[in-house]
Amino acid sequence: MKSPVRPPQPQFFSYLWASTGALLLVTVAFLFYVWTEKRIDQANELRYASHNLVEELRQSSDDLSRMARTYVATGDIQYRKHHQEIVAIREGRMPRPRNYENVYWDLVLADDRRPRASAAAVPLMQLMREAKLAPEELALLAAAKNESDKLVLVDIAAMDVRDAHDAMRATTMLHDAAYHRAKAAIMRPIGEVNDSVERRTRLLVEATSLDANLARVAFMCSALLLVVLVWRGKRKLDAERIAAMNRTQRVSRLYSALSQCNQAIVRSHNEAELFERICRDVVSYGGMQMAWIGLIDRELDRITVAASYGGGVEYLDELEVSLDAGAPEGRGPIGLSYRTGQPYWCQDYQHAPETAYWHARGARYGWASSAAIPLRRNGDIIGFFAPYANAVNAFDQEVQNLLLEMTLDIEFALKNFDREKVRQQADQRVHYLAHYDVLTGLPNRSQLHERARQLLEQARVNRTPAALLMLDLDHFKDINDTLGHTVGDALLSELALRLTSCLRDGDMVARLGGDEFIFVMPNMNSGEASDVARKLLDLIGQSHTVGVHDLRVSASIGIAMYPDDGHDVETLLQRADAAMFQVKRAGRQDFRFFTAAMQQRAARHLQLVNALRYALEREQMHVVYQPQVSLKTGRIIGAEALLRWSTPELGVVSPGEFIPAAEESGLIISIGDWVLRQAVRQARAWLDAGLPSLVMAVNLSAVQFRAADLPAHVAQVLYEEGLPPEYLELELTEGVAVQDPQGAIATMNALHDRGIRMSIDDFGTGFSSLSHLKKFKVYKLKIDQSFVRDISTDAEDKAIVAAIINMARSLGLTTIAEGVETVEQLEFLREQHCDEMQGYHISKPLPPQEFEALLSKQRD
Ligand SMILES: Nc1nc2c(ncn2[C@@H]2O[C@@H]3COP(=O)(O)O[C@H]4[C@@H](O)[C@H](n5cnc6c(=O)[nH]c(N)nc65)O[C@@H]4COP(=O)(O)O[C@H]3[C@H]2O)c(=O)[nH]1
């Protein structure tokens, strides 16, 4: 969009064409003048030639008379010859001497030679006809010639008379009145012709002189015009050259502004910096008086100044510019540009109606032109670039092009900033993800190492102790498995908040993934570390409301001290881990400091786990079977499958040692599965062998029990091995129900529905509540051997065992006592009406063949 611009001045080329035209005129006038002059010359020449010819007629006539008279007077023959020659020449019978008009017939040389060279022989009358004489003149001359010819005859007659010696008569003939009349008759037409030629020549010369004067005037005028045009053309050329020079300078200035703009883009780190630079460059290099960049405030529908530069920036103080077409401040160049989406060039700021609202204000700063160029981001107008100049029509095509190009560059830069911003955000995100745990916002493992290293370095320099606590939630996996990961994650976030509240300035807590948190506490001794651990356990032990769930969790904490337990993060972590492992082992929900013994245990644990990974594939495991006997009948009614493991390196490892390692490492899933299949297969084999039927009891760890597909899997194994479910009993520990009683009940129901029996192993050592026990679909309680061991001596154990048997009976459950080694124990159990027993008193766990032999005996 544009406001009007003044029309352009005539160009140098117009003058060049006009000058060429004038030169043409000068040439034509000059040629015309030359032509007129030539015509005058020709007329004069014609008059001269006519005069000569007429004169020749007169002269020859005179000469003939003179020759005839001289001959008559002297009798000299020479004159008669001259007379003949004159006639011969005039009639074209003899060559005409050159310059015949000047010939005097008396200048004949003594030797009778002619003094002049002769030319062609042409009759005088022919010459006269060729001399372009007028017809009436020719007629007069012909008449004169005729008269002269008649007189020639008289001359000849007189000369003949003289030859007849009558000189007197001859003289009279040449001098009488008739002769004179004849002479006069010749001269009259000649005179008339002369007059006619004179008159005609004069008239022609006069007419041509007029033309010549006209030509002269035309020549002078056109020459003057040419001079004027050349002068003005030269002035224009100079002006244009200066203008071109100025333009070149201006354009190069503008381009240097553009180049500055590009440099600004390269150098600027953000929008604000770029806008400032652009405004400064367009003023410093682009010939503008002032420039500003305004951004659209969408909420207020107004333009706010983002950057400005130049003389008169005070103009912008409290400047009102809006985009509202209904308000006067919204109908200015910016408003117009916004609505059309086009740049608006206001070439006469002080008189343009669209700037009326700001005229008074702008006049104070001398604005004569202004522009509003939209700035776009992703195609949307986000603001305006507004340069001001103190000359009208400041925005010619070149300036417009430049400003538009600058604007495009700014938009390009904005796009780059956006890209850079996205990249930086991505970098920050990557950095964040690399150093922080997304779920809790706590530092992650890598950040922990970095920060912990710094804290330990501080401790080293300050010679102060520091504590590293490793906290692991107990049975957190159960929450994930039963309530889902969303609840688990929410609980972790909540816990992270609570844990952070325990920290002093300078302490740090990190999440290592899963449910493990690490605390690094500089300047802390072991006493303070115990306090912190207690506090943490308290905090965690409080109930946590997550959605509809009211959750209670506990944690195990291992503590390693700097510098006593280690000097570097890795060592301290390892040792805190070992301490925590011991807490887990000892029943969880507690804290412990690292000790050297723990380290050994931890190392042993690691060794076991590593070896366990290859135990099955290296066929290092086998299953033994311990008989279970009915106290009533004394017959073997069942067998407990017990796993055995030995390796060349470790020798025989007790299940009490490797089973917990397998559970903690998750290897129990595959190992337990293998045991189940072995036991089921063995039971089927014994059935097939026709041995007395028995129930095969298989230990199932809590980890196995929590597997979602357990019931289906067990049923599948039974089906594949062909053993009816009533021949299998799964020994569950009380622990299976601690975390999620409802889930445990559901699993037990599913197993029960498939006809699979369940017993509770080690009853009395765990935390099963009787209310739960009622709901469990178990049919047997196994009294833990720790109670059985001392029943013959320890009254308390006796009471406990009796109570368990009674309680089981009241619940309709069968009881079995394990670890029965002596007759006394057996007797006491029988007294208490315990149903079954298992122990060394009957048999140690036996390999299949030996068990088979024992069973065979029973058959006998
Ligand atoms: N002192 C003494 N001990 C007796 C007597 N009678 C039996 N025992 C031992 O008592 C343990 C009974 O198994 P448990 O309570 O289920 O306790 C088992 C069981 O919890 C676990 N275990 C063994 N095999 C497996 C298995 O295949 N899967 C799972 N999950 N756990 C198993 O390891 C524990 C230890 O197993 P074992 O060392 O085989 O130890 C067995 C057995 O050898 C006795 O009269 N005196």
Automatic annotation (TrEMBL):
Any Pfam family the entry gives: GAF_2
Gene Ontology molecular function terms on file: cyclic-guanylate-specific phosphodiesterase activity
Membrane spanning residue stretches: 12-35
Alphabetical GO biological process terms: cellular response to nitric oxide
Organism: Duganella rivi
PANTHER family: BIOFILM ARCHITECTURE MAINTENANCE PROTEIN MBAA, DIGUANYLATE CYCLASE DGCP
Keyword Membrane: yes
Protein name according to UniProt: EAL domain-containing protein
Keyword terms of this UniProt record: Membrane, Transmembrane, Transmembrane helix
Domain annotation GGDEF: ranges: 464-596
Domain EAL positions: 605-859
Domain of life: Bacteria
